[in-house]
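[step 3/7] fold_predict: job queued, chain A
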Amino acid sequence: MKFAFRGLLSPVLTPYTNDGKFSIQLDVIPKYAKFLSSIGIDAVLVNGTSGEGMSMTVDERKAVTEAWATAVKETKQVLMVHVGGACLKDVQEMAAHAERLGCDSIMSLPELFNKPSTVEGLVNYLKYVGEAAPKTPLLYYHNPAYTGVRVSMPKFLAAAARDIPTFVGMKFTDNNLEEGTQCVVENGNLAIFLGCDHVLAGAFTLGFDSAIATTLNMLPSPSIKMLAAIKNNRSKEALEEQRKLSAAINVMTRNGGWVATMKAAMNLMTPIDVGPPRPPLTPLTSKEIQQLKQELTAMKLLH
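[step 4/7] structure written:
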């Protein structure tokens, strides 16, 4: 099975109301899609870690997927849907739902309670997911810091590509670029997206051609310039852009967890209001948001 997209893909944030009820604001999604398209983002991942997919019910995740599926019909963006992080029956239900909507691909975490400890166990789990959406490209979401699943990714990719008809690649959310590069070199026909914003320049230099990076939502320019610079053998320029991006990330994440701080930055830096994170994530305080605003202004990232 083919999945042609390569390049930069934005893991979108889920907009919630800021009234203590944390209801999903589906009406924000069409504007969000158009905004991302206007800043050069041609592909999106829905209901991932940044999208707080694991904090939503199955019905909510389906509703968000439906809203994005409708929105991208106008913007022509590639739509990837994360379906993992739930019981297998629910994962299969969301996979089948994404296929019915005509989504371009699905992505899944491993089983999170009965964690697979071998390549074979992980492949067998992904087989179940793939069988629920037999016409849709399937990617694996490798995020060992969250999942604790640490089997050999090069060996897994080879086995999954051989044994799962719909398997097309993975999101590699790990700073282990030695293993990541081995995945790229040994499985060049697969789509391998880096998921770590801090090491994009290094990854692109080592052969990655694609990334799924949260900062593409509100600060896409450094990543776009980095990828272009490496393609044109301008490594010094790529390093400069990485340092700009990393400095901005350090400011953004100074006072909280990744998703909470990225949502606060999105609300300050763009016209799209995605509200607060859902519990159990902790939102920034008013004082912290004010500090973030001042520091982003000092960096000339707010106007």
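[step 5/7] annotate
The radius of gyration is 18 Å.
The first strand starts at residue 8 and ends at 11.
exit 0
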